[in-house]
Every structure is written in C-alpha cells, then in structure tokens.
C-alpha cells in the first residue's frame, strides 16, 4: 500500500540505532516514516547520539528522505532544580524543547512542512512547544499516567517507596503547573496514548481533536528474526528443566523481589535457571542477596548486554518473566514474543494490553502473597508443559507480527497522517 509523500517535522529528543527503550523508539520512527515520506528530524546531542545516527542513516537506501538537525543540550541548570535530579532533568528537557521550537521556526521559513510529530521523550508531562507552529501537530505515542498499585508498595524497599511518592508528587505538580504540557495535549490534532491509563487522563484534558490508544513500542520484523525465532526450541531436554529470562533495568519498580520469592517456592522437580540481562541501581543488592540464599549457581547476572546481542538471550531461553509494577509497555515484552517466548507478567499498564490470554500469562494484582504464589504457579505450569510453551509462543509471535512490528506501525502512522490532513481526525 502506497501513501502520499508528506514533509514531516519529527521531534525525537532521544534517537539511537543501537539501543532500545526511548532511544530505539526515536530511531525506529525516523527509519520507518522516512521510507514513505521526507522527514526533517530534530534530535538532541544527548547521549552521544549524533555520530551513530548519521552513520546508520548512511546505510539506508532511502537516506535522501532524511534531514537531520542536531540541537545541543542546554548548558547549566536552575540552582533549585539541581538539588533534585528528576526536576533538573525535566528542566533541561523543557529548555531543549524551547530550542527545538526556535530551530523549527527557521526550518518552516525554508520548507513547506505538512505535519509535525513529537515522539520522544514519550511522556506527555515533558512538553513539546511545536504545537505553536501553524501546522497540524501530532503528539505521541505518549505515556506517563501509569503508577505503582497500592499493593505494589509492599515489594518496595523504604527508599524506593519515598522515590515513588516523590514521583507522584512531581507529576501532580507538573499537571497542575505545566501550562505547556496541557496546551500541547489540547492543541494537538491527534494524541496517541501508549497505555489505557494515559488515554483516560488525556481524554479528560482534551476537549477537541482526537486521542487514541496506540502502543508506544514495536519490534523490527526481519527475515533474520523470523529464521532465528523458528530455531527457538521453547524447552530443554526434559519438561521440568527450564531456562528463565529477565531483561531490563534492575531498579525497584521492576520488582525483582517478587520473582525471587516465586522462585524460592517452586516445586522441587522444577530444575530451573534464571538469566538476568541488565544493570541498574539494585544490581549489587540482588547479587548479594542471591549469594546469601545460595542461589548463585542458578541465577546468572550478565550485566549490561549490547542491544544487538540480546537476541541470543531470547533464543536460548524458555520463558520470559516480567514482574514490573510500573511500565509504559516494555519493548522487551514484544521482543520476547517475537522470539516465541511465553511471557509471565502482572496485569498492569501496557503488559495487560499486549498480552492476550493465549500468548502469555497475566498475574492478577490483589495481594502480595497471591501475586507471589500465582507467579510461581505460572512458572510451574509452563515448565511442566513444553507443548503449552510452544503453543503460547507461537500465538505471541503471530500477535507481534500481525500488530506490533515497526514496519506495520509506520504504515499505520502514514494512514493517520492522511486522516489528520483530510480533517477526518
């Protein structure tokens, strides 16, 4: 299906071809949209992005469709803000967005842009100012309204509880005081929301225009991925010998403690091993605790794994475990499904939307004991039934291929652009 070629101004504060999370989201939108359209991308010089982005663009056959505009990060910060890292980062992001607006105004004097689209950072509380320009403005997919459920605080250490409460207070402050954030939502012709919690809040703010649910992450479907995932066995030699995989930051909200408690009560006939790919502020804490419990031979902490090498971890695992308490969606969920792994996650945020009952196991969030027991039961059931793992893995793979590849998302976005410009949305 072909689309009319538009000139798009894309705001991608973070954008990196060799990383996941927000950086990967920015890059994939740039890559996919430029297949069909001419894209002028505003990108920050944050995280040494410029060199890898320029090099990756040169490898694309449609590179003539891409125009890169790198904008330096602001220097210095407000003295009061510097006392609180989260507020200081917010301040610097907002200052960068102001610089992006100035650059965009210069661009519009030279180029007849059709539509403006802000993609990263993907929190609606970090405002874009590009809605002020005289062109249709699309915001998102954005998240930012998800929060840890009350029972989830029972899994958090005291310091993390304080941090979560500070985060809640911060977002309440932003929502009450940030005129720019609310105006970006109100002025956008279309706001795409990455989870249902954010859609509910955005819908209460936005009185005109449209707000739609549109997942904030995706996976790149390639022939290599298809071939590799076909080789994923989904099981070891015996039905009770199982390889579990955790991938992502090791921080309080990711809830490693729940998984560890579940593993401790698995039946004795389940011969399990857990691979932990990732790093974070709690890495040393959990390594020490695992050693004290005598589980160091069963749990292997790999540390940070380069993004392009993560496929090996998926392909040598049987089950992906994702007990996160607060998440937009989590790219790792889609990556696991794309590699035909059944996923066990809590029925929260994006996971509750992505994981249909036939391609994963969603754990209800009612009480601490119930969550631990149900997580252990899910691991046990999947460990004992290799055919069930394969069946769920196939369903998950088909779900991702049908709905969540970046290739399909690029085409969906092109269709949405056309509807916005035609006045349908």
From TrEMBL:
<protein>
    <submittedName>
        <fullName>Glycosyltransferase family 4 protein</fullName>
        <ecNumber>2.4.-.-</ecNumber>
    </submittedName>
</protein>
<feature type="domain" description="Glycosyl transferase family 1">
    <location>
        <begin position="244"/>
        <end position="399"/>
    </location>
</feature>
<dbReference type="InterPro" id="IPR050194">
    <property type="entry name" value="Glycosyltransferase_grp1"/>
</dbReference>
<dbReference type="GO" id="GO:0016757">
    <property type="term" value="F:glycosyltransferase activity"/>
</dbReference>
<keyword id="KW-0808">Transferase</keyword>
<dbReference type="Pfam" id="PF00534">
    <property type="entry name" value="Glycos_transf_1"/>
</dbReference>
<dbReference type="InterPro" id="IPR001296">
    <property type="entry name" value="Glyco_trans_1"/>
</dbReference>
<keyword id="KW-0328">Glycosyltransferase</keyword>
